[in-house]
Amino acid sequence: MIDTGVLFIAGTGTAAWAAAGWQGVRQWQAERGHRVAGIVIGVSAAARGGASSTVTFVDDEGVPRRVETNFRASIGQEVRLGFPAGRPQHARRIGGIAPWGFTIMGTVVGGVFVATATCVLTGTVPPFLTGR
Predict the structure, then answer these.
(1) Share of the chain above pLDDT 90, in %
(2) Model pLDDT for residues 14-30, shown as the tens digit of each residue
(3) What's the CA gap between 96 and 99, in Å, rounded?
(4) How far is CA 14 from CA 8, 10, 19, 126, 128, in A?
(5) How far is it, in rounded angstroms, from Cα 14 to Cα 9?
(6) Which segments of 1-132 does DSSP mark as H helices, in order?
(7) Which residues lie closer than 8 Å to 118 by C-beta, 6 or more apart?
């Protein structure tokens, strides 16, 4: 019989992969879509240390838009945004490695969880833990 703890670990790893994949697809769509320049008009800090910035930009039809982004920037700073065609409400920060951080970490964490569950189920120990 399979231990429910192992199922939980494997399920958590799989969920992390799914979340990372979803965010990766959204970021990829933003990077491949329309690009605009935005100006940071507000910064708010969360109680747990995170931060978000309010960015304003003008979409392809000339409509002013606002979007909350999950990064800290200075008020008045210009940032690059991208969004899928026809969906400016899905604008995201583009450029560099930082916007891909959640995707990268979710993939790594999911892999560790799934590998741990696999090792427990098969009764093996990864070679890097045995010192051989």
Answers:
(1) 33
(2) 999 999 999 899 888 88
(3) 7
(4) 10, 6, 9, 20, 23
(5) 9
(6) 4-32, 101-122, 127-130
(7) 10
Interval 68-84 mean pLDDT? 86
Question: Among candidates 3, 11, 36, 26, which has minimal Cα distance to 122?
Answer: 3
DSSP strands (E only) in 30-69: 34-45, 51-58, 64-69
Tell me, what DSSP letter sits at residue 24? Answer: H
Per-residue pLDDT tens for 88-123? 888 888 877 777 888 899 999 999 999 989 888 888
Angle between the 101-122 and 4-32 helix axes, to the nearest 10 degrees? 150
Q: Which two tokens stand for residue 67?
A: 């979007």
Q: What is the pTM of this model?
A: 0.69
At 93, is the secondary structure helix, strand, or coil?
strand
